Amino acid sequence: MSTTEKRAGQEAFHQQLDGLRPRLLAFARLQLGDESQAEDLVQEALIGAWEGVERFDGRARLETWVFSILKHKLVDEIRHRRREQSTGFDPDDMPDVEGLFNPRAHWLPAARPKKWQEPEQACLQDGFWQVFDFCVLHLPESTARVFSMRELMGLETAEICAALGISEQNCWVILHRARLKLRACLENGWFDKGEDNAVL
Amino acid sequence: MRSCKRATELMSQQLDRELSNTERFSLKAHLMMCRHCRHCDIHFKALHRFSETRAQANESEKD
């Protein structure tokens, strides 16, 4: 490969990496709740990807690979914060779900889950992800963090417990409440409205 | 199991850990009898798939 070709290849790769930055940042921000620290970690992950390009075997998607680098950095950071006792993580900061059930633990009429029309089609529609992100970000912060570590980062509950210093039981309770809230939020914000007039 | 709330706990936990046979059986029995919880179960699983898609930064990204 000539020097010019090599340089063109590097430039293209650099642009691809840089194109991932907004997604990486949004993700890191959600995990850390701290803009400048999120920027630092994303920067480190992008540099790590740039330096380690020979380890990228092309079988995984570039995004998936860079995200996995960022995930490791985020988990390290969350662990580190916990050691420093500065996570601000409060396991009792959970959404209240008592309002969904009557004293006999049956669904209250207004809270009963309805049938969603073609949920698999939803993610292809304009605006769906804005509603989804809105719903995740409106969970209490600690709940949003556990949910995104589990469902967006794909960590096992045991890993989450270790990083946050909570019991696995506690983790399940938080995830249960997160899912109940998100379900209701998506239903109100999207599935109940029909695809044409979905507004927050 | 009569409690819808308890049923939703098991629906959630089956996404995070293996349920015991007893738990699986009582959840199944509850779901057969309760339409609202059947919807909820479908929604929890849909949330899981939405999150997977979201994490993979698909082409519908607006940033």
From TrEMBL, chain A:
InterPro entries: RNA_pol_sigma-24-rel (IPR014289), RNA_pol_sigma-70-like (IPR039425), RNA_pol_sigma-70_dom (IPR014284), RNA_pol_sigma70_r2 (IPR007627), RNA_pol_sigma70_r4_t2 (IPR013249). The keyword Transcription regulation applies. Residues 20-83 form the RNA polymerase sigma-70 region domain. The keyword Transcription regulation applies. It comes from the Bacteria. Keywords: DNA-binding, Sigma factor, Transcription, Transcription regulation. Residues 134-182 form the RNA polymerase sigma factor 70 region 4 type domain. NCBIfam families: Sig70_famx1 (TIGR02943), sigma70-ECF (TIGR02937). This is Sigma-70 family RNA polymerase sigma factor.
UniProtKB/TrEMBL annotation, chain B:
InterPro entries: Znf_put. This is Zf-HC2 domain-containing protein. Pfam families: zf-HC2. Residues 4-38 form the Putative zinc-finger domain.
